[in-house]
Write a structure and sequence with these properties.
Largest sheet: 9 strands, mixed
Structural class: alpha/beta
Oligomer: single chain
Number of strands: 9
Order of helices and strands: HHHHHHHHHHHHHHEHEHEEEHEEEHHHE
Strand content: 5-15%
Mean pLDDT: 78
Distance between the termini: 82 Å
Low-confidence stretches: 1-5, 21-27, 212-267, 393-421
Radius of gyration: 25 Å
């Protein structure tokens, strides 16, 4: 028998890893989910369901047990995600008893890692906790002017009220003016201050991200088509793109812990989006799987939708020319073009492969300031789904998802008022190009594009969010899809823009 001294050394790192994985599997068991649901009271359950509204947008939230079970099954609820939820509902006893963690451990994790729950939903729950019955009665009464009497029942909780306001597009992460006004009217200045701090923090985060993107890309120009820009990206940009968008947002503690009062943010400059309709939305679909959904989406946003189904390249050119010369543009605030076709890295083929194809750069050129002066100074938005052959795709190896902010050459980076003499002809373009393998059209017959499907969903649900920020979240969704499917079923997105102001595809 070997002596103890002759035994091989223990790999404690491996032991600790196995213990952690075992604990993670145990935490996500049905027994533990049942224990948590049973320990929460009705108010805490309501709060948890509200906190998970965004992460569980595609789930039918019947109760807490089904919600946690579904999120766990879909891989959306990690061990630390469950810990964050218990921390947010202030059940530190369950943290310690079930997850074997304390409050300080969770707070340290939240300072260093992305959050499961958005800061907006945390803010709403904190406001709800601080409102008494008298405050709620006054708040519900004030909301009658905006919601009508039928939707302002006296027994509503604050979170119920927020959900109803969200459905009516009266409240959103970037739409809190109404709530702020009502809190001021009921003399809850402390809660109004919470909203001001949140808005200031959100604006600083967006400004920091946009400034960083512009600083690193000031020498690029929309004159170069998107497929030529890949080799120009720096190592730092590639590293940034690999990370999910949520990791680019600084981690914040709850509003209560955010420190001294911050001044009210300066109103940001936005594109005017008030015309009715907002503009023409041209949908050219050579495949036929996405046209109906896209039509419904952009109609709901307030656009006049025009469709061209299964066109040849000559027909695509003719339709683009006709739309670019429409006099109606002078009365509208924006223009949207969605194209779905087979092609290669530089062209679209329409339904006829015998044609040499339509250059992607030519599409954009037809709506520039010199060729379409009625759109000068107005946002011109392009969403393109191009299905290409495997051998024609440009492989990068570092990432299947790429994001660029772009400045047109010789264009001053400072915002300027719209006008033919001051706005660069290549300004105000938002160009989102997605490539996928043509094999998807046979493997997933009649299936919509994952890129366009999630784009439509986000435009409907988050219409009051800035388009650049919404697109970053779309990147994360597509990246998650790519991580779960074979190489030939992945999507590659390139975003370029010369936007000079914040763009929100919604009437105010």
């Amino acid at each position: 028998m070997k002596s103890v001294a002759s035994w091989p050394p223990v790999d404690w790192t491996g032991v600790l890893l196995l213990q952690f994985l075992a604990r993670k599997l145990y935490i996500m068991s049905a027994e533990v989910i049942h224990q948590i649901e049973e320990a929460l009271d009705e108010d805490e359950k309501e709060m948890l369901l509200f906190l998970c509204q965004d992460v569980a947008a595609d789930l039918v939230q019947v109760n807490v047990r089904d919600l946690l079970d579904s999120l766990s099954e879909k891989g959306k609820l990690s061990f630390m995600g469950l810990a964050e939820l218990l921390y947010r509902v202030r059940r530190f006893d369950l943290l310690k008893r079930i997850l074997k963690m304390d409050k300080m451990t969770v707070e340290a994790h939240l300072r260093r890692h992305p959050h499961l729950v958005s800061d907006y939903r945390v803010l709403m729950t904190e406001i709800g906790e601080d409102l008494d019955k008298s405050d709620m009665s006054s708040l519900i009464f004030l909301m009658r002017d905006y919601m009508g009497r039928g939707k302002t029942a006296k027994d509503k909780s604050f979170l119920d009220l927020v959900i109803e306001l969200e459905k009516l597009n009266l409240v959103a992460p970037d739409q809190l003016d109404l709530l702020e006004k009502c809190l001021k009217n009921i003399h809850r200045i402390d809660l109004k201050t919470k909203i001001q701090k949140y808005k200031q923090s959100a604006q600083e985060t967006e400004t920091s991200h946009i400034n960083g993107s512009q600083a690193s890309l000031t020498n690029l120009s929309l004159k170069d088509p998107p497929y030529n820009l890949k080799n120009a990206r720096s190592k730092e940009q590639r590293l940034m793109v690999k990370q999910p968008a949520i990791q680019r947002i600084p981690v914040k503690t709850s509003i209560q812990e955010s420190g001294a009062f911050l001044p009210q943010p300066i109103p940001e400059e936005r594109y005017r989006m008030q015309s009715k309709p907002l503009g023409i939305c041209l949908i050219i679909d050579c495949i036929g799987n996405d046209a109906e959904n896209l039509r419904d989406t952009f109609t709901s946003l307030g656009y006049e939708v025009r469709r061209s189904l299964y066109p040849t390249v000559d027909n695509i050119i003719r339709v683009l020319y006709q739309v670019s010369h429409m006099t109606q543009h002078q009365d509208y605030d924006s223009f949207v073009c969605v194209l779905v076709s087979r092609g290669d890295s530089q062209r679209l083929f329409g339904v006829d492969r015998t044609h040499s194809g339509l250059a992607l750069d030519q599409i954009r050129r037809m709506f520039m300031g010199d060729t379409c002066p009625s759109l000068l100074g107005k946002p011109k938005i392009f969403f393109i789904q191009n299905y290409v052959e495997s051998e024609s795709r440009l492989e990068d190896g570092s990432s299947l998802l790429e994001v660029d902010g772009l400045s047109a050459s010789n264009m001053d980076s400072r915002p300027r008022q719209s006008g033919a003499s001051t706005v660069h002809q290549e300004a105000d373009v938002f160009w989102s190009l997605c490539e996928a393998d043509t094999s998807l059209l046979t493997q997933r017959l009649n299936s919509p594009s994952v890129y366009l499907q999630h784009l439509s969903q986000k435009l409907r649900q988050q219409r009051r969010q800035p388009l650049v920020q919404l697109h970053l979240q779309l990147n994360d969704t597509v990246c998650e899809w790519n991580s779960r499917v074979p190489h030939k079923e992945r999507y590659r997105i390139v975003l370029q823009h010369t936007l000079r102001k914040t763009l929100i595809l919604s009437c105010k």
